[in-house]
Amino acid sequence: MLPRIAIIGRPNVGKSTLFNRLVGRKLAIVDNTPGVTRDRKEYEARIGGRDVILLDTAGLEEAPPDTVAGRMRASSEAAIQQADLILFVVDAKAGLTASDRAFAAWLRRQKVPVLAVANKTEGRGGTMAALEAYELGFGDPVAISAEHGEGISDLHSTVAGMLPEEPEEEEEDDKDRPLRLAVVGRPNAGKSTLLNALLGEERMITGPEPGLTRDAVTSEFNDAVGRVRIVDTAGMRKKARIVEGLEQMSVGATINALKEAEVAVLVLDALLGLDEQDLRIARLAEREGRAVVIALNKWDAVEDRIAARRGIEDTLQTSLAQLKGITVVAMSAATGRGVDKLMPAVRETMERWNKRVPTGELNRWFEGALSRHQPPLADGRRIKLRYATMPKARPPTIVIFGPRAEDLPEDYRRYLVNSFRDAFDMPGVPIRLQLRGTS
Ligand code: GDP
Ligand code: GDP
Predict the structure, then answer these.
(1) pTM of the prediction?
(2) Per-residue pLDDT tens for 299-346?
(3) Is 433's C-beta closer than 6 angstroms to any atom of ligand 1?
(4) Which residue in 173, 263, 366, 414 has the fewest CB atoms around it within 10 Å?
(5) By alpha-carbon position, which residue is closest to atom 12 of ligand 1?
């Protein structure tokens, strides 16, 4: 999914000219009669080193021509639904008009990132004219001349800085790719026993392979959904044991396994409960951004199961809030009982970790969260938060924009993350929150 950019603004401010300049070919019809019929199209362009889709919204200007502002609104509503970024173009030569201002006021309420572009600033006095565009309230405007090609590189770099982050992996949608699973936990929790139970007859050693950490061995098996590759660190573990002694967990090996995996299964010894060492591994998984499922192993040997479960859940509640709601599967790797519940739980958590929330839904949540619990004051003034985007999943990452957003205190950030997690049902998934200040 390429980021989508819409160019909007009053008729005749130079949208089509800018569009053509960005696409690099003469595609849209340029005409100085306002509202010339044009088909609405999408074009691929490269902006600031990124491939993007430019939405040509010009055709929509044909909407009922009651007022200029009404027409702009009609044409822009559709664009806003689809766009990751809006370029709001004004004519700096003509100066801001009442409809520019009315439209900007409306646009500010639409919760999409907007860049103000002051066009027709060529020649002397151009930059001065552009200053007026500050009044639109979208931060620093970019001054350009679409016709003469001035200010375009500035526009490219500014746009690049406002686009959602590039997805980390191209292969994201590749259905044939196996799910990558790391089985982590302290020594003797039962990791090897669990691996054997999962692999069963199908055991197939595939590593070492190029690109994988040296000494990492991977094995694959099929669950009900598809292939699963276990990023096994047996080799690394063995080495670590020699170096550090048998009872030591190798943090290095665990981190390497986590880096190569999508989901981590944290194996706990139910007889020992959840202690500091286990929490440390869980936090490493969280820090690496992995989805986590807990395998509560040796369940066969537990006498008071109710107390054991409660003990674990209390500790999770108080000490692992970052992974709130994490799934706990009680099992016995040795007897095989309950092991069949593990992969469905892994798949489900993985799906949440993969989930993209559409911008519209995201902002409905965002407004609700803000109205239920207002952002706090900083230096006596309320911190205003404008809109949210979700540039990536794996793990889910939300970016919130607003003037002084960076000043938001930790407890309010936590509130937003928890509210997001509840609203979109993402237990056991680390959620990243980034705050970006706008002026
Ligand atoms: P749209 O209706 O917003 O798509 O505007 P157009 O791209 O059709 O341009 C409207 C008019 O403004 C045309 O006559 C263009 O040649 C002119 N125009 C576009 N960009 C510039 C510019 O940077 N400087 C000047 N002086 N005129 C421009
Ligand atoms: P690892 O160090 O995490 O790979 O742990 P192992 O798989 O080597 O298991 C450590 C010990 O726990 C072994 O003696 C296993 O037999 C025992 N064990 C593993 N799973 C279970 C289980 O489900 N129930 C019981 N009672 N013992 C288990």
Answers:
(1) 0.60
(2) 999 999 999 999 999 999 999 988 888 999 999 999 999 999 999 999
(3) no
(4) 173
(5) 14
